[in-house]
Amino acid sequence: MTAFRQQIRFATASDGVKIAYATSGDGPPLVRAGHWMTHLEWDWRTPVWGPWIERLSARHRLVRYDSRGCGLSDGEVEGVGLDALVADLEAAVDAAGLEQFALLGVSQGGAVAIAYAARHPQRVSRLVLLDAFARGALVRRPGDEELLDAMARLVLAGWGQDNAAFRQMFTSQFFPRATPAQAEAFNDLQRVSCTPAHAHRLMRSFARLDASALLPAVRCPTLVLHCRGDVRVPFEEGRFVASGIADASFQPLESANHVPLQGESAFDEAVQRIEEFLGVAAAGGGAFAALSPREREVVELLARGLDNAQIGAHLGLAEKTVRNNVSLLFDKLGAENRAQAIVRAREAGYGRGAAGG
Questions:
Q1: Cα angle 109, 113, 115; round to 5
Q2: Looking at the structure, do residues 342 and 231 belong to the same domain, yes or no?
Q3: Which of 124, 195, 252, 260 could form a disulfide with 267 if both were Cys (CB 3.0 to 4.6 A apart)?
Q4: Which residues form the HTH luxR-type domain (predicted)?
């Protein structure tokens, strides 16, 4: 279990499905798009996802949710196409009260994050895609349908059994370099994250997801990280995603796992790259480390070029209150004037979102 506490609540998607979401940590908001095989209560404790949650919660208000049919969200739902999965994300961020946030898409959550960022450009300040795909397996390789059918039938017949041999096949594909403890935890996560029937349904649906047409519509700064040895989502798909988003930064990771795990150098590198991209590595030190969450919000809006009235409207504060807060920030940041404060904030990684109110 991580050093942070999480709060679990429920949101309602546009079609009435109940979506469980959790928040942990403090700081600028970061949302992890839902993906397959999550359980808000379970993955919090595992050596697979627990280290990721802890590192990301250290400098962010991290928002996670279980997609429909998984974890603590409503199970056995029929609609699991791209639009329904985006509706889950929409419900979670609206219920969490987020107006603008950084968005992290992992694996199949990448297609969801891409679609959301394209459809809601004003809401996503930065996008991070980790071993993500825009095109499902059958979109990339239509000839693999017979293989997919065989694997889906195997899931339906054997995934719910006490014997983990069936699930171990998938664990070996996802995390071939896992430690015994990590592999065992992922085996168990497969069993508790959703029923065999729903896992069967998800496999067939996710293989046909396609958000590739929306890649050119993503306008926010984007970082794409991908493990060279990933066999679940090939490295070439990461390259395809990065090349389809204007000015996206592409960072290969030296790992054979689907997502880097704690204990390998790629895990620390991935976290560092994400923190640098989101600006929290620089912002976490020096004068910025002493700022309260509200002060960091003011700095973020200040760095985007908003005036006091615009900042006040964005945060629900009187313009006079904002003026006083900004003056205090000058002292804390050692800035003589507004222009100097903006320069220092931008050097620390603030202000990368879209300008305006």
A1: 120
A2: no
A3: 260
A4: 284-349
Burial annotation 21-48 (CB, 10 A radius, 16+ → b, else e): bbbbbebbbbbbbbbbbbbbebbbebbb
Q: What pairs with residue 293 in β-bridges?
A: none
Q: In which residue are the tokens 């017949």 written?
A: 157
- SS3 call for 44: coil
- Write out pLDDT tens, residues 212-254: 999 999 999 999 999 999 999 999 999 999 999 999 999 999 9
pLDDT at 155: 81
**In whole angstroms, how far apart are CA 346 and each of 182, 230, 341?**
39, 35, 9
Question: d(Cα 260, Cα 271) in Å, to the nearest integer?
Answer: 10
User: Domain check: are 271 and 294 in the same one?
Assistant: no
User: Strand 6-12 relative to strand 18-24: parallel, antiparallel, unpaired?
Assistant: antiparallel
Our CA dihedral for 241, 19, 169, 184, rounded to 10 degrees, sits at 120
CA angle 61, 90, 223 (to 5 degrees): 60
What pLDDT does 357 receive? 38
Look up residue 306 and give its two tokens. Answer: 């908003």
Domain limits for position 335: 290-347
Q: Report residues of the chain scoring pLDDT below 50.
A: 281-285, 354-357
Domain count, the chain: 2
CA angle 128, 129, 131 (to 5 degrees): 145
